[in-house]
Design goal:
The complex is a heterodimer of chains A (190) and B (246).
Chain A: H1 11-20, H2 25-44, H3 48-64, H4 75-94, H5 106-115, H6 124-135, H7 140-151, H8 156-163, H9 167-188
Chain B: H1 3-14, H2 22-57, H3 66-72, H4 75-94, H5 103-123, H6 126-134, H7 138-150, E1 158-168, E2 171-176, E3 181-186, E4 192-193, E5 204-213, E6 216-224
Parallel strand pairs in B: 3-6, 4-6
Antiparallel strand pairs in B: 1-2, 1-5, 2-3, 5-6
Helix pairs in contact in B: 2-4, 2-5, 4-5
The chains are: A mainly alpha (190), B alpha/beta (246).
Amino acid sequence: MTTIECDNLSDEELVGRVLKEADYFKCIVDRYEPALRRYISRLSNCSPDAIDDILQNVFLKCYLNLNDFNVNLKFSSWLYRIAHNETINEWRKHKNRFTSFDDQDVSGWRELAADIDLEQEVEQTLLAEKVKKSMSGLDPKYAEILLLRFWEGYDYQEISDIVKKPVGTVASLINRAKAQLKKEIKKSKI
Amino acid sequence: MNNISTRVLAQIKEKDLKPKSKLVFAVRNYLAWTALVLVVISAGFASGVAFVWLSDDFSPQRLDSLPHIFEVIPSFWLVLMVLLLLIALIEYRQTKLGYRRSHLISGLVIVGTGVVIGSIFIYSGIIDLVEQNMAVLPYVREMQERRIQQWHRPAVGLLAGKIINVQAPEVFSLKDVSGMIWQVTVGTTTLVWQRNLRPERDLDVKIIGQAVGEGAFVATEIRPGSRGCANQQMDHVPSPCNKILH
């Protein structure tokens, strides 16, 4: 395969190129694989091999359905929606423990801890650890919504497009998730 | 080369995979919207029939005991309407951007559209026409007969039947559904001839009023006998309605 230059192309431009030449799809895979791997890993608690399989299915579905990509959405939201659906399907098939937050990326923990205003209750050094442990006790739908908001950095509209729920529902889910997380943290007394 | 991209591209080339055609998605989208429109139109029709039945058949006299409350509720049409509205809501949520609206807004838009369509059905006379033609179906005819039978309760002030003779604008003879002949006097103050009804021979009517003696009835309100069958010269026009009262 010839070397393809695609760093300067937007997602939407890349989609257009892929529809003409399949090799450009490599750019989309390379661009999104690390983020999607992290997202699926946190969401599903699957083994690395299983995550590879899910990723492969996600990208194949993305490729086959490229003509269904709605230009009213961001490409990344659309791709994350496919990943979200594939991961949930996988979870239903194998009944894995939903959500796993055993990674070392503390930025999400810090941001979430700051957002739910925990500084006064916990020492700063324990903050991330405290939130991380409590996340595992959360209802999966809450954990996923926090994951999209604080680790993936999506705004409410993008989250709405990924999980296919109205923006208002997303906002109230985030609020309820934060309230439940606070309760979990207080309960655990780490 | 990255492992995943290698695997994905290898599969694409090996199986000669191509993105599905735009046409496939366009047809799927078109079918989804067509199904949604059809379901909403059907829900509108069901709501129109339910409304017509409720407004035509409702009278305070019929609410004198609890069982009669259930008699006046067109449960089949109401259940059908609710079911179709729910299906429409689910279908709408499945459309491409349907999820962006809240359940409340989506529900209100769908119910509102159903009501508007139902009103169009009512005021255009389509419900009358469809009901009339549907009377050939045994189930529909049975329902229409039951509706009229429910009005055959002279003791509580309800009377249904066919005008057989108009003696004067305010006096006519009526043959009720059991075959008994009544002399009906039209009241002077509270009478309403609904929907521009005029006393004429062979007209099917439902009357609210009071039995004032053997075979004598004073009417305070007169309504069409049954939608779709009202205003027809029943003995002369071949129609499924003819069979209802005969």
